[in-house]
């Protein structure tokens, strides 16, 4: 578990806070949300239904700092329990974008592969999220006009990552860190 963030299931008592954030200008500026086309009561019904009735195919989570400040949300959708796969989406509030999205992604990978026993995760990153786009493989599928934000379409990039690929990435990063530490110790 990461010491800087905590990810919990979205519960009914979290829904009003989620809806309020969706109506904030800076959040709407970044993504195309239901809040741009649906009134608050229907949005509340949508999330209540998701929390109560749709856990089998879509789950929402709240991302908080260790001081309990909400910094974003993430969700898994298109859950295929038989083939053990799902799609992961992460939305970090604009003022927390530097670094927290990556931490949330790593935390969710650990949860999806180790707790939910997923074998593969479909990742989606919107154009303009340059820091996380660096983690996308060169062969990521580009889905044009995926999101409509303030009169402009944005593309998204999708790729599949298996548990084995994730473990290999972790191992490689750990080796690089060990090599880097040994270089510093020899100086």
From TrEMBL:
Q: Which residues form the N-acetyltransferase domain?
A: 6-130
Q: Which domain of life is it from?
A: Bacteria
Q: Name one Pfam family in it.
A: Acetyltransf_3
User: Which protein are we looking at?
Assistant: GNAT family N-acetyltransferase
| Species of the source | Virgibacillus tibetensis
């Amino acid at each position: 578990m990461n010491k800087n963030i905590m990810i919990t299931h979205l519960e009914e008592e979290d829904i009003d806070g989620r809806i309020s954030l969706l109506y904030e200008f800076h959040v709407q500026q970044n993504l195309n949300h239901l809040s741009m086309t649906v009134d608050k009561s229907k949005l509340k019904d949508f999330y209540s239904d998701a929390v109560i009735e749709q856990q089998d195919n879509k789950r929402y989570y709240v991302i908080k700092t260790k001081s309990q400040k909400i910094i974003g949300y993430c969700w898994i959708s298109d859950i295929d329990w038989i083939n053990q796969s799902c799609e992961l989406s992460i939305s970090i509030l604009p003022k927390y974008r530097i670094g927290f999205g990556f931490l949330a992604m790593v935390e969710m990978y650990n949860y999806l592969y180790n707790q939910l026993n997923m074998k593969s995760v479909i990742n989606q990153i919107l154009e303009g999220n340059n820091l996380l786009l660096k983690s996308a493989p060169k062969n990521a599928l580009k889905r044009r006009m995926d999101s409509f934000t303030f009169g402009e379409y944005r593309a998204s990039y999708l790729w599949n990552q298996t548990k084995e690929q994730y473990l290999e990435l972790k191992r490689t990063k750990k080796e690089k860190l060990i090599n880097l530490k040994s270089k510093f110790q020899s100086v």
